[in-house]
Amino acid sequence: MNTSDNTHPIDIVVQAELPDDTSSHGKTSAVAYVFSSEATLLASAPLTEKGEARLKFTATATASNLRVLVGPATTEKSPSFDELMRRGALEQHLRYNPRQPVLQARFKVFPDIWHCWWRSACFVKGNLLKRVQIGGMWENFPVCNATVEIYEVDPLFIIIPKLPELVIERLRELIIKPRPFPEPLPEIGPMAKAPLRRAMPSEHRLDAEGARLLMQLSDATELRYLAQVGSRLQFQQALIKNPIVIRPLLCYFYPRFVTKQRVGTAHTDECGHFSTLFFQGCLNHDTPDLYFKATQKLFGFFDVSIYAPTPIACHTWWNYQCGTEVTLYTHSPLAHTCSPCPPVVGPEGHGRWVAFLAIGGTPLSKIYGTSQELRDTKPPAEVAAKLGLTEAGQPWGSLLRPRLLFSNELEALGVRYYQVSWRRGTSGSFVALKDGIQHYYRHDVSTPTGDVPAWTPYTLGPAPVADGSGNFVPDLTKIPYASVAPEGVWDTPPSSGEIVEHLSSAKFPTNAFAPGLVFHEDGTIVSGTTDESDRYQLKVDLFDAQGQPINIVAMGIKYVVPDVPDLSGTIYTTDAAPLGLVSGNSMVITLHVDNNRCFASIGAPSIGATLADPCCGLLISQPADNVSMPYTAYHPHGFAQYSFSVVRGTQAVVSRNSSVDDPGTLVNEDTGGGTAVETVNNLMTLNPAPGCSGVNCVVAGFSENLYVDSMATDGWGSELGYDASDVRAFVLSTVALPS
Questions:
Q1: Which end of the chain has less Cβ packing within 10 Å, N or C?
Q2: What is the pLDDT of residues 304-347, one digit of tens each?
Q3: How far is the C-alpha of 128 from the C-alpha of 142, rounded, in Å?
Q4: Strand runs labelled E in 429-528
Q5: How far apart are alpha carbons 336 and 333 in whole angstroms?
Q6: Average per-residue pLDDT in the chain?
């Protein structure tokens, strides 16, 4: 079969008049398009200075009905018909006639139309980050090489009239008789740390503020009045005028009625940043409401979704102000990230620096002795007493991982190596840390389906370095400049364990150098364990290619520390010297290390001199009797918190929480020192379980639970295995039981 018999050459001449066009901008930016009746793009051409374009193409006989458009130029290779019409393109229909060699289409584009083609532009920018939990902390890592799709959600004046009658009536009921709403979950925001903190309220989801507004529906007098007596149209208009209240309702109950249209596409860079322009069109005067989706290539060729939260109504950025920055967080295990790249700003623009950023995930700006803010805002006596502790009063323990960052300018100065060493106290010799440090580089690996990324560890040191005279300088670590990577680029690996390794600049195993006390069940100290808690110091030094010390003054190099509360954005720094952290060519910081274990013990409950039966845990009692419940929560230096509770059945009837702040003694805020006292009547009746009100217990079982939580941290979290707990059960009976 000859396929040429089914195709026909088509020639269309488009003439567009743009009145009052005093510049050539409008004409040169306008484009003529031709689509099939099924909205398939067949051809396009820009308008000339005279407002003309000629479209020549070959089409099948099924393209007898043609749709010719004049509209704005787009960045898309094949713009869609819907997008052009949304932006205000003008349209004419032509019927193809094989006996008519040339078809013509004439347009008159008035200024209000062609002006809005470009003036309705909206600039969108943002960040795509992956939330990774390391220890007890959430860290942000940029998602690079991802495609972000931007959608415009229909405004309320379009959504509300589309709602079915049953939905409108249901909204009337909710507004006339407001009901309690579920407590919104805390957001994990960019500032969230361990313990998690609620992020600032945002308009793109139902937050605590939105829930509060919903609970105040009864105060919306006009809205409630129209819900009671207004017509459908009047009630719809009232809903549209109260967007802050209505959006959460859509999120909770009717998200399926929210529709969207894609208006733009962007791509993330190595730092997870993306930006693009989209055009709202001539007929849309509403502030845009935006929804975002993101995909990334898996195995180098397969697009997978890594961000597409639902329902849409709960994850829309309502009333988006063009040009403002959005931050999207993905938890997808398929999302691969790149190395964090927040810029570090040296003090007063100084470009030659070594930044001692953090211990694990805790920046030095949160440590007494290395924080300018704590020095300037706290009494000197407090700063001296808490030297080396975190802002929250935590000591350090287990394996500590200092994090350093080096200015790229140091490479041209010949700075090639660094060394981190330690000592106990504030005097004596330092000893170099020797545990290996690995950095990960990303490179492509060929597979039958194409290249895929791989992350490979590379050991930077510590290792001996030849000094050029036949000797070696021990325990030096390479500075990970970009040129040091064996191939590819340095990059954050996928798993959290590898990320921790990649971010580490040294390893300080305090549990080996400064072990702590361990306790038997009776509270006696395990033989051979000693209390080595104290203030310890870490020292940083720089070296050249031959392992010779760098004179930082001669080279104009500064040691700096962060001057911001976290490391998630631009890291502003301050000179470490005024803080007393620079000695000669070295930087020295102090950390308070405490690896002591906690101790927890619950004594036998008693009434007067009568202890609970050790075999059955039974106490015969009267309702007015006082039950004494002793317990011991202990840490050698008070660096712990504890919780003590008594549970009857499934309900807590006693709860105590406090800090272990009186070393060496029974610790509790109750009078009697470490003993909770309650009457039998209270223990039997307090906090009844659902459905148990009015039930009088004459015999009840109780569980005593004590947990002592060590405050020591490794910079990522406090789950170091230093906690202690105890549990004990007893039975109260107000009636005599058979023996």
A1: C
A2: 888 988 777 778 887 788 878 888 988 888 888 877 776 788 88
A3: 6
A4: 431-432, 437-447, 450-461, 463-466, 472-478, 489-490, 508-509
A5: 8
A6: 80
pLDDT above 70: residue 219? no
What global pTM score does this model have?
0.71
Domain with CATH 2.60.40.10 in the chain: 3-119
Instruction: Give the span between the Cα atoms of 252 and 47, in whole angstroms.
Output: 49
Q: Which residues contact 388 (CB under 8 A, 6 or more apart)?
A: 367, 368, 369, 395, 396, 535, 536, 590, 591, 592, 593
CATH number of 599-733: 2.60.40.1930
Q: Tell me which residue has tokens 């006989």.
A: 61
Give CATH 2.60.40.1930 domain extents, the chain.
599-733
Reported in sequence order, the residue ranges of 223-381 that DSSP labels E, i.e. its strands, are 260-267, 273-279, 290-298, 302-307, 325-330, 344-345, 353-359, 362-363
**Confidence band for 119, pLDDT divided at 50, 70 and 90:** low
Give Rg (Cα) of the chain: 35
605, 629 contact by CB (below 8 A): yes
Describe the strand order of the beta sheet including 30-36 as a list of residue ranges.
41-46, 30-36, 65-72, 90-95
Q: Rounded to whole angstroms, how far apart are CA atoms 248 and 210?
A: 6
> Whole-angstrom Cα distance, residue 204 to residue 316?
5
Q: Which amino acid makes up residue 498?
A: E
Provide CATH code, domain 3-119.
2.60.40.10
CA distance 294 to 337: 13
Q: Are 628 and 660 in contact (CB under 8 A)?
A: no
Largest distance between two CA atoms of the chain: 116
Strands annotated E in 499-650: 508-509, 534-544, 558-562, 571-575, 582-583, 586-593, 599-602, 606-607, 610-611, 618-620, 626-634, 640-648
Q: How far is residue 515's CA from residue 520's CA, in Å, rounded to a whole number?
A: 16
The answer to whether the CB of 652 falls within 8 A of the CB of 659 is no
Direct distance between the N- and C-terminal alpha carbons of the chain, in angstroms, rounded to an integer = 104
Question: What gap in Å lies between CA 225 and CA 308, rounded to an integer?
Answer: 38
Tokens 């000693």 label which residue? 530
Q: Output the 3-class SS for 415-432.
A: EEEEEEEEEECCCCCCEE
Q: C-alpha 359: how far from its chain's center?
A: 20
**Tokens standing for residue 454:** 């791989």
Closest C-alpha among 370, 332, 735, 358 to residue 568? 358
> Any idea which of 8-12, 103-107, 291-295, 689-693 has the lowest mean pLDDT?
689-693
Residue 477, classed as helix, strand or coil, is strand
At 51-86, the pLDDT tens digits run: 888 888 876 655 567 888 888 877 777 788 877 877
Query: What does the block give as tokens for 76?
Result: 């898309």
Give the burial class of 634: count Cβ atoms within 10 A of its Cβ; 0-12 exposed, 13-18 middle, 19 or more buried.
buried
Q: Which residues contact 548 (CB under 8 A, 6 or more apart)?
A: 467, 473
Q: For residue 706, what are the contacts with CB-CB under 8 A and spacing of at least 6?
A: 600, 601, 602, 631, 633, 642, 643, 644, 725, 726, 727
